[in-house]
Amino acid sequence: MAKDSEGSLGFNAAWSMAVGGMIGGGIFATLGVVIQAAGEWAWASFLIGGLIALATGHSYAALTVESGKPGGIYRFLRELDHGYAARIAAWVLILGYTLTVSVYAFTFGAYLANALGGPAWLPQAMAAVSIIALAGVNLMGVGEASTLEIVAVWGKLVILAGLAAFGLAQWNAGELVIDQPPGIVGALIGAGTVFMAYEGFQLLAYDYDEMKDRETLMPRVMPAAILTALAVYIAVALGTPMLIGADAVIEQREVALATAGRAALGTTGFVAVTIAAAFSTASAINATLFATARLARSVAEEGELPGIFGKTDREGVPYAGIMLISAVALALALVGGLGDLVKGASVIFLIVFGLVNAIAIRRKVGRAWIAWAGCSGAALAAAILLLHQLGFI
């Protein structure tokens, strides 16, 4: 397998991969779901989720640098001689990432179909096209994938920042209130729901071998990417309801930001936000496929996944893993509902976040108090989300 020992991802490309993995699902796919759960406290849900993600990012970076190898929680468990748990974690993560790819594709299809009009099957068709096209980009290799990521991320950040600023300039706190206010408990439920929106930063743990000056880069790029996503989420969660009202965001959850863009700048705003949504979800599909296929390759090379995941071309691209993950994600995007996909993925990543922080505590890497905060926060959020899903709160 060919691999550049110096890596090919610098700060901008690695940051773009992480931000693309987060924001693609984080705001276009989850805003309406979170506002329905938290109402006027949706901004607090994104803040709580971001703080837990920051703590977990600290643990991820410290553990990855100590290990010196890609693999994330799979690698960390292997190094603790928990081989069976590591194998289960690898399968769970691949499922979680496949779910997130399906969410991004679902959202991509919804926004494009909303803009184009047409028959009822068009959103599903657009979702399928997005997965197939981005799988093709990944099959071309890291250079093409990372270049696309940089362009897509900067484009969507400019548009999202403009939309948020336009809404915040028309501040009216009453627009944040929904018909059935959930209260402060809603913020905690929303914080549990939102975790799929923050999972993208951990993709860097699987891209570790692709980075330049990786031991220095990893501890810098993870918090930078998480803070970027956190700031964008809070700004958009506060600004969008100023334009169309929180209840409209819930009603039109699949395309709420495009509706807000129309309210802000008419057709120009609608088109701009639709383009941002397409770029955002496409970059998220790209980043997630890129890293998940490399995770599967690493695990397969150690005999813990079927050998097909380890098949690569002459350039070291794990083509078989990319195609398998893409095929399953495509099927889920065609049959799944947005809310269920988001919440299912969030539960998976909350469990992973909590375990990573617990491993950092056990191995005594990084700052212990940060790992304890991340572990406690993830466990609490997971418990609240599960209790909510079971109807107890």
From TrEMBL:
Coiled coil: none annotated. The chain crosses the membrane at residues 12-35, 41-63, 84-108, 120-139, 151-171, 183-204, 225-250, 270-296, 317-338, 344-361, 368-387. Its main location: membrane. It is found in: Cell membrane. The keyword Transmembrane applies. It holds the Pfam family AA_permease_2. It is a multi-pass membrane protein. The keyword Ribosomal protein does not apply. Keywords: Cell membrane, Membrane, Transmembrane, Transmembrane helix. One of its GO terms (cellular component) is plasma membrane. One of its GO terms (molecular function) is transmembrane transporter activity. InterPro entries: AA/rel_permease1, APC_superfamily. This is Amino acid permease. It comes from Parasphingopyxis marina. The lineage of its organism: Bacteria, Pseudomonadati, Pseudomonadota, Alphaproteobacteria, Sphingomonadales.
